[in-house]
Amino acid sequence: MKHTDVQQQQASLFLEVCHVNEEPRLPLHTSIVLFLLSYSECKFFRVFLVFTKPAGSQSLKSQLPESLDVCDIQVEELPKLVRGCRLPAVLDETGRLCRAGLAVVLRHIINKTIEADPSRNDVLALLGFKKTCLKACAEVSKWTRLCEIGIPSAVEEHLQNPTNQYQQLPVSILTLERRLAEPVKVHNDDKIRRQKLQEQRQNEKNESRGGQGNADSDTQPGQSPQVCDGLELRAALAKLSVDSVPTSTTRENSEIRKVKTTDLPPLEHVFAEGLYFTLTDVVLLPCIYQYLCSLQAHAASTLQQLPHLLRWYSRVQEVPGVLRAAKACGMTLCIPESSSSSLPGPSAEDNLTTQLEQEQQEMTTQLPFVGGPRPTMTKLKENGIEAVFAPHPCPEWTLPWDNLPEAINPTEGKMSNIRAVRKRQQLNNLVAMVTELARPGYTVVDFCSGTGHVGIVLAHTFPDCQVILIENKEESLVRAQSRSAELGLENIGFIQANLDYFTGPFHIGVALHACGVATDMVMEHCIQAEAAFVISPCCYGFVPNAIKFSFPRSKRFQDTLTYKEHMTLCRFADQTAVQLPPERRLIGKQCMGLVDLDRSWAAETHGYLVRVMTMEPESCSPKNNMLVGKPPQKGALENSASRVEAPVHN
Q: Which position has the higher pLDDT, 440 or 269?
């Protein structure tokens, strides 16, 4: 069915369709979303398959659950807010709030399912302990990045040329295999471990009564396969359904209760995150299904290197509802055949160990350093590098706060009066710089927008510009949307996503107190879009939590400092709190200036003109630096204006 007019009476879910040899195919991210929709029996969304070429979904019918309302749409017909995001994406009923990215969309589907049917405890359990499963963004969480990006990408790459890649297993698959081999640590696991010890000892007694043990068994004494495959799996299934294996109510005997916690047997992985079936398993299943099918067809012997992955794959199929959901999505789950007479070869573990050791060596090849920030600052000074701050062009500029609607004032955001005053001062600085850069028709993106203090002020101040707020935390963005609706703003849109999932064009990027590496990510986005930027960095000590960047950023700093010396600057750049001694705060301010000087020089290699300045008054924040960057050509922003369509909503 061809559908070109997306009606917003119902939330819309947009899923990508790719083409291989001119034939439409569902990429893994799309297959994962469809599997969750089928498993959770969620019918809240109208689903659109997004095609980049003229085609239809008829050939994909076997992979689409019949219960879903699925339509076809061409990429140029997408709503404008969705068009600026990587798929999958969900557009809410208002057409103003878009959720993009695999983990964000999956968690939203789960929340909507529970909202519609609170009795679905099996779906609620997918969010894991404290509802944090895959909540951390992929930019800083290695586990989220592995599951959301690493494994799907590795499998997609393998499927493109399966006959040439099986001899060296992908690092992401090896990492998962190693993770599944590790003991499980779960909240309040003492009781389960004591039950396991009791079953182990009972099993030993039964074996001794039989007159002989399993001499041929490779299992360690007291750890029979039956116990390993029994207790953990029973505990996992019992959590999913009351009709599954019931939890034992028999209390352990006194001998078991006296055993120290440190002497209890470890719990083995049942599912990806431990004992319980979670969203991570939902993400992995379609990926591993296609990967194992390919290995079975092209290199069955390789399966011997993945014993823990195969065991996980078998256990997932025992979860109620998984086989039903898989069948609805065209997946026929079964256990791949591999030779059980041969133990797993060492190549999988050796390959991963070797690659991890190489990465570690790359991180530790630089010479060590001695001392705090002073030796590093002295070293920079000897090489002609010192923190320099540009003068503030309009230190007295301020918004007319007394005349602004109450919903714009930061005090409306449930903060103290003193903090609200400082927040207004911070906003004065950012809006003043945007005023210098903005022109009618521009699109301004507020990255890491939180509850919208910056973006809402910008949308009200520049009614002829379009403002997009991007934030990963749903609660914050929903609050920002509520404040915007109260003000009746029409030139504003909202995107819940990690920064990497926003791909739309824009003219100015702003960020107030972008935490750690988020500052570098915002700058990179702006440089790629040839957009100006106004950024106030924060949490310099969190810069080491980077996956996609190397530090220092600029060549001159790289030629002068080691990685560890640069990290020393970052750590001491956070020593600017008002309760610290003045001399220490001064050193912290200089370290902030040096870290941001490195960032500015990195941007200048792309032709940018960058100023590092201090917000006015300096007391508005301990993190009072501000980086203002202009693109290489004066007309770059004007030339790109034609690429950005004005409305950001339907």
A: 440
